[in-house]
């Protein structure tokens, strides 16, 4: 079981991802934006950060940069439905472990998370 911080501002995507990951035995803490994610990271340890790129307050790219600096052992997995944002994220390949394109299936999500956790 891994402790996963899920930063996603779209409630339906957050609920879907949370259910899927919990069904596979993970403990998931959902937050609605990057600023809430920063607070959650400071409050408790996580094995993986799963974050949307486009969010209010602090976007997923800025969150990933901060998280990789402050918590270098934590895995980071980004999600986005915007191709331009995927390119922005790929430019951070040394910090971000993977970009999951939206829409994704339950199987895609779980496989990506499991693969990152296994590395």
Q: Which residue ranges are poorly predicted, with pLDDT under 50 across at least 5 consecutive positions?
A: none
CATH class: Alpha Beta
Structural class: alpha/beta
Order of the strands making up the biggest sheet: 2-1-3-4-5
Give the strand tally: 5
How much is the average pLDDT? 89
- Percent range for β-strand residues: 15-25%
Question: Can you tell me about this structure?
Answer:
- The chain has five helices and five strands.
- The radius of gyration is 12 Å and the shape is globular.
- Helix content is 46%, strand content 21%.
- It has helices at 11-23, 34-43, 60-70, 83-90, 106-118, and strands at residues 3-7, 27-31, 48-52, 75-80, 98-101.
- The mean pLDDT is 89.
- It has a single domain (3-118), classed as Response regulator (Rossmann fold), CATH 3.40.50.2300.
- The chain starts with a strand and ends with a helix.
- A five-stranded parallel sheet has the order 2-1-3-4-5, with helices on both faces.
- It is α/β, with parallel strands linked by helices and 119 residues long.
- Helix 1 (11-23) links the parallel strand 1 (3-7) and strand 2 (27-31).
């Amino acid at each position: 079981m891994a402790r996963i911080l899920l930063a996603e501002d779209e409630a339906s995507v957050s609920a879907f991802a949370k259910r899927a990951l919990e069904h596979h035995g993970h403990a998931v803490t959902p937050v609605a934006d990057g600023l809430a994610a920063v607070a959650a990271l400071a409050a408790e340890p996580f094995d993986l950060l799963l974050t949307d790129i486009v969010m209010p307050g602090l976007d997923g790219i800025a969150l990933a940069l901060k998280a990789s600096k402050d918590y270098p052992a934590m895995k980071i997995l980004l999600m986005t439905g915007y191709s331009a944002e995927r390119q922005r994220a790929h430019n951070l390949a040394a910090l971000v472990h993977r970009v999951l394109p939206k829409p994704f299936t339950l199987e895609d999500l779980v496989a990506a998370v499991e693969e990152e956790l296994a590395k």
